[in-house]
Amino acid sequence: MDLAIPSIDIASLGPELILSIAAILVLMVSVFLPKERKDPACYLSLLGILFALASSVTLWGKPKYAFNNMIYVDNFGLFFNMVVLITAGIAILMSINYLKEEGMSHGEFFALILFATVGMMFMAIGSNLITIFLGLETMSISIYVLAGFLRERDRSNESALKYLLLGAFSSAFLLYGIAFIYGATGTTDLKGISVFLSEATYLNDPMLLAGTGLLLVGFGFKIAAVPFHMWTPDVYEGAPTSVTAFMSVGVKAAAFAAFVRVFSYSLWNLQPDWVLLMWILAVLTMTLGNIAAIAQTNIKRMLAYSSIAHAGYIMVGMVASSELGISSILFYMLAYAFMNLGAFGVIIVFERKGEKNLDIEDYSGMGFKYPALALLMSIFLFSLAGIPPTAGFVGKFYIFGAAVKEGYIWLAIIGVMNSLVSVYYYLRVTVVMYMNEPVKEFTGITWSPSMVIALIIAVIGTLLIGILPSPYLDLAKQSILLMM
Amino acid sequence: MVPISYYLILSAVLFTIGVIGVLVRRNAIIIFMCIELMLNAVNLSFVAISKHLDSLDGQIFVIFVMTVAAAEVAVGLAIIINLFRNKETINIDEVNIMKW
């Protein structure tokens, strides 16, 4: 057998390599740091993220396959790389003080966030199902640990266990789907699959359809689509808040990147088969997410259901899957990153050790006591609800616009109705903050500089994208131009 | 020579046993073993298909899957041990602080 050694193109893996090296350095450095003084480790990880961002920028606009077609570094992948890098950066900034307060300031935390980010980036640039699977597992395994990071706390434990068991369960489905696709098409290369399907005369091969269905289950789990969402509220509620912030954005972004690449590109010829299923999933996800969020009293749990609903909105873009549809997914993901991270940031500032101050009721009267914090929270929640002039409004506008353009008018109508429902529970928090009398004494909050930076980045992102959306939309459009 | 469908059916049966195990058993470690069974059922499919198609991709995939499964077990057992330290049980019915 002829074994050709592929040309090794290290440069195209720049961001991932830099981040991996940074993660290993963080692990080594933190061994020598005294307990509770792990700040250098987190500065190192932030530095790694900055370099990885810079390296992503240099790769922009020059799409190429590398490592024997295992990865495809195109703008689409790089766009998602940047989104997850920004997410990781903000999440680390938010974690520094949070971990100190919880007494769990360990260097491993930052290293794990970086490793998870590397996994996410591989999912975004992977052009072979092997790469995508490995990226997914690198990400998931790191996040299982992160979810259980506060190891003496029962809730954190429970959240890690639930995520682990269900995550591994769903990975097995994804893997079985990959095996079926491999069996039906003879390749795991995304381009190869697409070529095979466009030449195939008979697309109703049961193996192919079963494989597509199983892949849908596997990805549906990672993006928390109904009916594969049952883990989301429990895991998001129990995990450390900064980890919840990280995973609610990062995991979703990476999973959507791979989801879009596999379904809207590789399995495009099967679109008539999966589009109806996706339509139903999108409607169920939006509706159930929003309705269940109304009933929540814990704010983290409420945002967990809201994140399910947001996955539903993004799936609307996948149903449309036109050029506009895909670019609006990218745009929405960027907007969602800023607004959701910001909302969780405010929760972290307000949270006290041992899961205090996490009920929506605890926020009553906050608008008078901490006007700045309440204002920030209102901006992020308005954005999540989709009220102009915030990023969330523009994102929803483009996604539903794409759906209408492709003829999915009912889907867009259901989406808009859902976002009306969502206004109720987002505004309830604002109402509680500004109109209710405080139910209990506020303990002083501490503003750490890193948290202030994180919140400022998030609020600037949310407002800037909302007020001047066109450069970002152009960026998103550019990203899909050279896709595959 | 055994036809490929035999392998695929065996793999499907093993996978189904794994799924049922995850759904009905209540011990975290046994659930974990059932997940491993599912992964190995998939591995069997991969190898059979790889042999059938005469392409190596499937076998390479299997090696990756085994590696990932090992990593997952390491993390999983750590989480389960931690759970046992906190609650002195690994019965997942008792891990229920959070529910709606």
List the uncertain runs of chain A: none
In total, how many beta strands of chain B? Answer: 0
Could you give the order of the helices and strands of chain A?
HHEEHHHHHHHHHHHHHHHHH
Give the termini separation of chain A.
29 Å
Number of domains of chain B: 1
Order of strands across the biggest sheet of chain A?
1-2
Percent strand of chain B equals: under 5%
Strand content of chain A: under 5%
Number of helices of chain B: 3
DSSP helix fraction of chain B: over 70%
Overall geometry of chain A: globular
What is the fold's blueprint, element by element?
The complex is a heterodimer of chains A (484) and B (100).
Chain A: H1 14-32, H2 39-59, E1 64-66, E2 71-73, H3 75-102, H4 107-125, H5 129-147, H6 154-185, H7 190-199, H8 206-223, H9 231-238, H10 241-266, H11 271-294, H12 299-320, H13 323-350, H14 366-369, H15 371-385, H16 391-405, H17 409-435, H18 449-467, H19 470-481
Chain B: H1 4-24, H2 28-53, H3 57-87
Helix pairs in contact in B: 1-2, 2-3
Q: How would you describe this protein?
A:
- The complex is a heterodimer of chains A (484) and B (100).
- Chain A has helices at 14-32, 39-59, 75-102, 107-125, 129-147, 154-185, 190-199, 206-223, 231-238, 241-266, 271-294, 299-320, 323-350, 366-369, 371-385, 391-405, 409-435, 449-467, 470-481; strands spanning 64-66, 71-73.
- Chain A has 484 residues and is mainly α.
- Chain A has one domain (12-481).
- The model of chain A has no long low-confidence stretch (mean pLDDT 89).
- Chain B has 100 residues and is mainly α.
- Chain B has a single domain (4-88), classed as Helix Hairpins (Orthogonal Bundle), CATH 1.10.287.3510.
- Chain B is 78% helix and 0% strand.
- The longest helix of chain B has 31 residues, at 57-87.
- The relative contact order of chain B is 0.13.
- The mean pLDDT of chain B is 90.
- The chains are: A mainly alpha (484), B mainly alpha (100).
- At the A-B interface, helix 5, helix 6 and helix 9 of A face helix 1, helix 2 and helix 3 of B.
